[in-house]
Amino acid sequence: MGTTQTVMENKLYFTNIQMRNSLIQIEDQMAHTPWLPTVILGINRGGCIPGVYLSHRLNVPHEPLDIRLRDHKSIPDIDRLNTNFNKGERILILDDINDTGSTFNYITEHFGKPDSVKYGAVINNKSSLARIDYFGYEIDKSKNDQWVVFPWEEWDK
Asked: Which domains does the chain possess?
């Protein structure tokens, strides 16, 4: 990733600067294609902060998409995805990390993957079971299985 990363206790501390650089990379990847989103759906919770940042940068709306598969018993809710799709929006679904791929695969299994829906993450794990369209940084947890800690998760670091 970059020289500003901090590694402690088998954790990788991702910085605000790295997050912003990652979003710039995602924007750059989209700029080199004919596809740009008209709405960003940030995966609750990790994708909401980068989703809001990117929505301001691209001047498009942001809405949370409530899919929490880890540590929660709530039923995932893809109603916002259905609503925006039915309105003809070009939807970027954004998360902080494409780790195992379970969140993106859940969406694909329950919604499909039409051309108007793209997936992005601040960090992409090469060994994830899901393939995404856009990412800023890439790691490989099959070679170095570190827990990634984002700035909004531990304020004291």
From this structure: 6-149 (3.40.50.2020)
